[in-house]
Amino acid sequence: MLALVTSDGGPTSHTAILAREKGIVAIVGAADAVALADGTTVIVDAAAGTVNDSPTSEELAAVAERIASRAAEDARPAGPGALADGTPISLLANLGKPADAADAVARGAEGVGLFRTEFLFLGASQAPTIEQQRAAYVELLGAFEGRKVVVRLLDAGADKPLAFLNDAHEENPALGLRGLRALRASEDILREQLTALAEADAATAADLWVMAPMVTTVEETAYFTTLAKEFGLKTAGVMVEVPASALLADRVLAHADFASIGTNDLTQYTMAADRLLGSVAGFQDPWHPAVLRLVREVGEAGARLGKPVGICGEAAADPLLAVVLVGLGATSLSMAPSALSDVRRSISQHTLEDARRIAASALLADDAAGARAAAKSAASAH
Ligand code: PEP
Ligand code: MG
């Protein structure tokens, strides 16, 4: 498939995430797309958010050339991610299954910043066995010897429904028994997953970090990290996806080895806009200064406590926003492997001081469009 255009859905709906994972150019929520006739040749420019349904032959030739030169660039080996002043910023991959590891390494991923374990569970009528899970984790960790691999415990509910974890009807599942809340309510499943991870860790030589999804409180943080350590997992952290945990990041981080900001959910909960709904997709924009302020809270808390703060939501895949996130205190960025080369290039053009200045200008804006424009002009003025 060359490109994907849908008439509904938001930018962090799972259609969009899967398309990005596979490196497929995608535009979601383009209401007019239903009017396109079968057989029409179109140019889809996801960066600009446009679908050109009557391209000229010159435009088609220019696109073909752009695609070829990008492919050649992507094929060149890449060093570790760094800012222009040499500040290291690890560039990591978001992965959904172990089989995608080789492609991520080939694209220069320094490790894995988010391994979504849901693939083992979705579509299943019961949890996979410890043995089945261990085999999958061994395959994943085996591909990243000596490198960091952050595995997220099962994130069920809302956009990732799983009947055997929560079959209650909920009017607002995104605000319901999901993420760590659902795991805690079925602690046997959580314990089995931790067992499988600890066994896979013992059998491999990657640097395994584990984290819990949708953590809201300090108490939940302490619960998860204490439990993970009981299983012998040495590095345990939390995903910051809810404004409550971002606002109390200093206290959350006092109980966690690291935080990883899930900007997809953090944007959904900050803007009160369901990430699956095309009708409110306009709110689902991580450039919004309200979201950026929350990221700054976490970044500053991490710096004060000397704890790493990663970003693993789709925001990290936006080359300019990646610079802003670093300016707000992110120490690593994790994204679909197809985004790595653009982000690597973008962050290498700015020093940490630049990134902080660019972030400060975005924070002053009133809305997402203003923040984007301010960052763009600050980034070109140096
Ligand atoms: C996020 O919410 O930003 C995230 C990385 O997790 P997911 O998209 O799987 O909910
Ligand atoms: Mg999430």
**Unreliable runs:** none
Distinct bound molecules: phosphoenolpyruvate, magnesium ion
Give me the CATH architecture of the largest domain, please: Alpha-Beta Barrel
- Which shape, going by the Cα principal axes? globular
**What are the secondary-structure elements, in order, as H or E?**
EHEEEHEHEHEHHEHEHHEHHEHEHHH
CATH class of the largest domain: Alpha Beta
Strand order of the largest sheet: 5-6-7-8-9-10-11-12
Number of helices: 15
The chain-level mean pLDDT equals 92
CATH homologous superfamily designation of the largest domain: Phosphoenolpyruvate-binding domains
Helix coverage percent: 40-55%
Strand content: 5-15%
The beta-strand count equals 12
Q: What is the domain tally?
A: 2
Structural classification? alpha/beta
Strand count, sense and closure of the main sheet? 8 strands, parallel, barrel
Fold and architecture overview:
With 382 residues, the protein is of the alpha/beta class. The protein has two domains: 3-73, Phosphohistidine domain (Glucose Oxidase, domain 1); 80-380, Phosphoenolpyruvate-binding domains (TIM Barrel). 42% of the residues lie in helices and 14% in strands. The chain has helices spanning 14-21, 57-75, 101-106, 130-142, 180-185, 187-202, 218-230, 243-247, 249-253, 263-271, 289-305, 319-327, 340-347, 352-363, 368-380, and strands at 3-5, 25-27, 43-45, 50-52, 90-95, 112-116, 148-152, 207-215, 235-240, 259-261, 309-311, 332-335. The strands form three sheets. It has an eight-stranded parallel beta barrel with strand order 5-6-7-8-9-10-11-12, surrounded by five helices. The protein has a two-stranded parallel ribbon with strand order 1-2. Strands 3-4 form a two-stranded antiparallel sheet. Helix 4 crosses helix 6 (187-202), helix 12 (319-327) crosses helix 13 (340-347) and helix 12 packs across helix 14. The model has no long low-confidence stretch (mean pLDDT 92). Bound molecules: phosphoenolpyruvate and magnesium ion. Magnesium ion (MG) is lined by residues 213, 241, 262, 264-265.
